[in-house]
């Protein structure tokens, strides 16, 4: 036994330069070799063969090397080569994965080895792999025979893929051949080959499909492929089948360039079946700063006809949209000056587009108020140059200039006064003719801010501040004959104005002190009342009440009330009441309550005299976790008809989700079903949306 050293001391321990057991000195690493991490070996019984350089460890064996750990009932370890043979509930772990198996053969220096009847868990992606034979080819690569993989926990996962051969790259993909998809243990789908992302970063691949049934579109099937092009570029490709319309093909391209340049371009085309025409939709959104500190924004839309919105719109305001609007704008700001230009094109979808007024282009230069020396006076300038264009109509160039001189005065801490005198000059050019007209204007404002703090000394609310802000303003514009000027839009006529308006704002703000000593402020009440008196009652146009009689000098009384008792509850009211016996002109009410955990109820009411009376409901429930419900309803009270019912149901499991949506509108019903496996996204909708 001269070549062997045996230690039995309950828990023998070997580290770095070695320990002496029974007069025998052994080494796990040469004390002069610092190129590799040291190895520590613990066991109830440890035998070292000095000639072979092999350790035989038994009983609660634990081998450590840096962040790598090997635990088993029995381990044979060659400290020179780094080979380790482990058996009996073997378990190997490092920062990337945890592997278990009946028998393991590992090389801890080269990060290679094999496992019999093993399992590997990748915690960063919650990815589970199992197989009869698992080979660790390198630090990040594995090959598995007769294996399974899933992102579900538990011995009997909700879903899994089984494969004859499986190759996994940590931080990359799991590629499998001869694959079956299982719901629990029941195989329901066969694939000859597939790839599955095995990392948390975005990855290219197919998203789970979406199925649906619609009265307009018929049976729907949406297949989506997501492609990562670069760190800041990606694209999504769509192929949609609609049994009643045709086949849709779509592309979404997203980009982030530099620190603040980003955008998204969408293209969608439907090849119509017999009896249905092709449809095209294009959308581009962009925002960012170009060289020279020029800010460029774009929001461009195009559809071939209005049927696109009725066929593919899924929310109110989209499926009943009757026009598209495209705007591309650039601006440059320096000091108190701002230069901006835009091209705006409006396309009507339900009526003749020949008389639609376009702005091609419009340029604005604004000089913000700047103080004149040390005086209380300020100077500002607003200017614009616009080319107003119609296909079959007028084509007019308009230049508008409005210099203004203003002053600000304060008296103590309670009175603020401001006055402004301006002169708007407009120059028109059309069909070889030119006209110009100037209109002066004047404004005087008086206001103050009063506040008082009340001590409450409650458990949460310590103080409440009441803020009172009254304001009075006088506007004057003389009557100027403008009959010789073109009148294409609202800005082309400046009506006479001789009005006095008043407003009163009340605000209540609570100071909230937490038990941890943190302070926060919460405005729980806002009330504003405003009205206007017209001294002349002539030529003043009320857009909400164009039939207003000329002797009605008092405008509608505008009242706004916002009450927010808590962070998750609110009531918003907005009304216009005629003080001349005309009754309620408009009224809007919205209220909601929630618990911050997914349970919420919101009610909406809108009324406009002689036009609309509308009720909306939005209910979200999370009490039935993992089932989540959302119900929305829109009801027209004036016509006693339901405009839309929407019910969304979502089941969130640990590693998968099921989504069912039912939509009932006046002209169609639609049901869609989609699901998602953790690690694979889902197709949210067919067609293309216009955000």
Description:
- By secondary structure, the chain is an all-beta fold.
- 1% of the residues lie in helices and 66% in strands.
- The protein contains one helix and 43 strands.
- The strands form three sheets. The chain has a 26-stranded antiparallel barrel. Strands 1, 2, 5, 6, 7, 8, 9, 10, 11, 12, 13, 14, 15 and 16 form a 14-stranded antiparallel beta sheet that branches. The protein has a two-stranded antiparallel ribbon with strand order 3-4.
- Strand 38 and strand 39 form a beta hairpin.
- Residues 1-35 and 539-545 have low confidence and may be disordered.
Uncertain runs are: 1-35, 539-545
Number of helical elements: 1
Main sheet makeup: 26 strands, antiparallel, barrel
Question: What amount of the residues lies in strands?
Answer: over 45%
Integer average pLDDT = 84
- Number of E-state strands: 43
Distance between the termini: 82 Å
Q: What is the gyration radius calculated from CA atoms? A: 37 Å
Work out the helicity level.
under 10%
Shape estimate: elongated
Structural class by secondary-structure content: mainly beta
Précis, in short:
The protein is an all-beta fold and 691 residues long. The chain is 1% helix and 66% strand.
């Amino acid at each position: 036994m001269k070549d062997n050293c045996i230690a039995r001391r309950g828990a023998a321990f070997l580290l770095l330069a070695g320990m002496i057991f029974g007069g025998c000195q052994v080494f796990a690493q040469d004390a002069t070799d610092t190129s590799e991490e040291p190895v520590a070996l613990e066991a109830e019984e440890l035998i070292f063969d000095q000639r072979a350089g092999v350790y035989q460890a038994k009983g609660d064996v634990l081998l450590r090397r840096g962040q790598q750990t090997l635990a088993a009932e029995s381990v044979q370890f060659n400290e020179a080569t780094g080979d380790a043979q482990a058996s009996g509930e073997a378990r190997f772990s490092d920062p990337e994965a945890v592997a278990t198996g009946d028998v393991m053969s590992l090389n801890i220096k080269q990060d290679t080895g094999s496992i019999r009847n093993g399992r590997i868990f990748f915690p960063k992606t919650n990815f589970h792999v199992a197989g009869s034979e698992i080979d660790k080819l390198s630090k990040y690569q594995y090959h598995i025979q007769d294996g399974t993989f899933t992102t579900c926990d538990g011995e009997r996962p909700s879903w899994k893929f089984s494969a004859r051969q499986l190759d996994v790259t940590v931080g990359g993909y799991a590629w499998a051949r001869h694959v079956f998809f299982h719901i629990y243990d029941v195989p329901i789908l066969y694939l000859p080959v597939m790839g599955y992302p095995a990392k948390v970063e975005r990855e290219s691949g197919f998203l789970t499909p979406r199925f649906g049934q619609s009265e307009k579109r018929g049976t729907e099937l949406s297949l989506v492929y997501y492609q990562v092009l670069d760190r800041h570029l990606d694209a999504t490709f769509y192929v949609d089948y609609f049994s009643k319309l045709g086949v849709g093909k779509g592309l979404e391209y997203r980009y982030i360039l530099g620190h603040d340049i980003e955008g998204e371009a969408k293209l969608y085309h439907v090849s119509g079946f017999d009896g249905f025409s092709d449809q095209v939709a294009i959308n581009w959104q962009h925002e960012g700063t170009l060289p020279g500190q020029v800010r460029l924004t774009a929001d461009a839309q195009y559809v071939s006809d209005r049927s696109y919105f009725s066929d593919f719109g899924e929310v109110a305001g989209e499926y009943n949209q009757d026009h598209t609007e495209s705007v591309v704008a650039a601006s440059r700001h320096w000091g108190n000056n701002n230069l901006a230009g835009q091209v705006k094109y409006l396309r009507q979808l339900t009526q003749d587009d020949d008389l639609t007024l376009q702005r091609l282009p419009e340029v604005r230069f604004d000089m913000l108020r700047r103080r004149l020396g040390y005086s209380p006076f300020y100077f500002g300038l607003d200017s614009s140059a616009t080319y107003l264009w119609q296909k079959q109509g007028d084509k007019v160039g308009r230049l508008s200039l409005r210099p203004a001189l203003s002053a600000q005065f304060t008296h103590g801490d309670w009175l603020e006064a401001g006055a402004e005198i301006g002169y708007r000059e407009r120059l028109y050019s059309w069909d070889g003719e030119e006209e110009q007209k100037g209109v002066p204007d004047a404004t005087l404002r008086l206001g103050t801010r009063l506040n008082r703090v009340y001590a409450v000394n409650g458990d949460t609310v310590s103080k409440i501040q009441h803020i009172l802000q009254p304001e009075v303003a006088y506007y004057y514009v003389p009557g100027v004959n403008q009959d010789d000027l073109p009148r294409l839009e609202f800005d082309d006529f400046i009506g006479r104005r001789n009005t006095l308006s008043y407003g009163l704002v009340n605000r209540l703000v609570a100071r909230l002190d937490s038990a941890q000593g943190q302070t926060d402020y919460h405005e729980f009440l806002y009330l504003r009342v405003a009205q206007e008196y017209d001294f002349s009652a002539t030529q003043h146009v009320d857009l909400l009440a164009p039939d207003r009689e000329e002797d009605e000098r008092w405008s509608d009384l505008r009242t706004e009330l916002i009450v927010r008792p808590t962070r998750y509850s609110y009531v918003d009211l907005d009304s216009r009441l005629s003080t001349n016996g005309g009754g309620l002109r408009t009224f809007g009410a919205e209220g909601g309550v929630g618990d911050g955990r997914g349970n919420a109820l919101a009610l909406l009411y809108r009324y406009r005299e002689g036009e609309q009376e509308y009720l909306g409901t939005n209910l979200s429930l999370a009490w039935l976790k993992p089932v989540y419900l959302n119900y929305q309803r829109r009801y027209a009270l004036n016509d006693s008809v339901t405009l839309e019912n929407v019910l969304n149901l979502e089941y969130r499991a640990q590693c998968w989700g099921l989504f069912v949506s039912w939509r009932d509108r006046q002209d169609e019903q639609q049901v869609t079903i989609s699901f998602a496996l953790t690690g694979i996204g889902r197709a949210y909708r067919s067609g293309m949306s216009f955000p």
